[in-house]
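Collaborator request, handled under Task 6.
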Amino acid sequence: MDTIWEEIFWGNTVQQWITAVGIFALLAVLVKLLKTFAFRRIKRFSERTTSTLDDLIVKLLGSSVMPMLYVLAFYMGTRYLQFPASVERIIHAVVITVTTYYVVHGISGLFSYLISRFTKGDGTQEKQAKGILLIVKVFLWLGGVVFLLDNLGYNITTIVTGLGIGGIAIALAAQAILGDLFSYLVIFFDKPFETGDFIVVGDKSGSVEYIGIKTTRLRTPAGEQLIMSNTDLTNSRVQNYKRMERRRVLLSIGVEYETGAEKLERIPAIVKEIIDAQPDVVFDRTHFAGFGDFSLNFEIVFYILTADYLKYMDCQHAFCMQLYRRFDQEKIGFAYPTQKLLLARAGA
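Structure tokens returned to the collaborator:
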């Protein structure tokens, strides 16, 4: 009986082969049980929650962790066997390669989740995020390849040095492009403006149509397309009108000097009555601001509870029309530039 256990096949005894297979089978069964009970419970729990983080965990467990555990189970089984050096290197290379693949795949999935959460389902931002995600994945896989080569025994010092020198040369040659790329990342994550916002940059203004890796395109009020580099945008003061919660209206009007004091005192109440009658408009103040060259000046301030420019102009138009009608009814005249000439009689 002892001779059967000591029979040698491919450099290992029967006992060693059975032990190795038994270890692999035992670990594989444990992984299977883990997947059947713990993994399924986590999956059922994730289906009952509204959070997407547990869905990501379930996805990574199924696509990366579980396959990697089977590979590690196989590797642990082979540790009880003796193989030629060449076969050992092959097994080591296969295990390291597969493990590296699943680790990088899992990290890549995590970055995809974080970026998708950052975009919050915005279709335009999701398209923009694809460029960032592609860059992240390229760097992740390059790092995985370097890690793999290092663990396979290759001297990566020369490769890393070459990549460093090449990277410096590329960075110097493409300095402007890299500057726009980093500015694009600033715009994407900091979100000073988004597609559809109306912005003013210096003496230029327009609605944001597209945010690219190098340039951002605006549609000006005149209709033409304005293309600006991302670096210019991040280095400038940007006024974003779409994010206004309300618009402040400041009007100055002048009435004739012949207007009586009683009528002057009624003007603030008339203005407040007109503004209060309009929806989405809030009265702030009306004051007799001073004496002009040819008019008695009043300053009117009110707020329109919307950022919509068309709504803003409609409310201002309606207020001005109503104010004109009320002044006409009250016999209050708007002032216009006038001069009085006092002529003295000869010999007077």
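The cover message to the collaborator said: "The chain has three domains: 2-171, 192-240, 247-329. The mean pLDDT is 77. Please let us know whether this matches your experimental observations."
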